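Lab notebook: predicted structure, single chain.

Context: the supervisor wants predicted structures on file for every construct in the current expression panel, including those that have not yet been purified. This is the next one on the list. No modifications to the sequence; it matches the entry in the shared construct table.
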Amino acid sequence: MQHLRQSVRTFLDGSAWPEGVDDASRREQAKLMYDYIKFHIGLYLATPAAIGLLGSTFAVADKPAFQAGLAAMMVIYLGAGLHASRFMGRFINVAWDQNVMATFADKAFTFQRRVMHHWTYWLGLIIGLAGLLIAKL
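Prediction complete. Output recorded below exactly as produced.
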């Protein structure tokens, strides 16, 4: 139960790496996070196109409900993609110093970043699919 409480606290509050995690492990996690963010940026680009194709397939592309859902999805994904790009740009486009991993941890392990880079994908997908469904009904 204590592990669950700690996991929830870490998820909501963010955290730094615990004591004893070596620099190589920290760099490896930073690489994984970078790849994860690139994956999400790819989803932000591909998903509206897939929903648009579904709109054409189901002959609802000209319906206002579908267009509104698709437009809202694209705006959400644009915001999330810009946030992800800006986040990673802070670490990719600058020379690293000895504190870079601590700075990365301060920014990466936050509730706001998790929401912006993960939850917004699902929100956009739900809105896009809802527009498709409403237009089809």
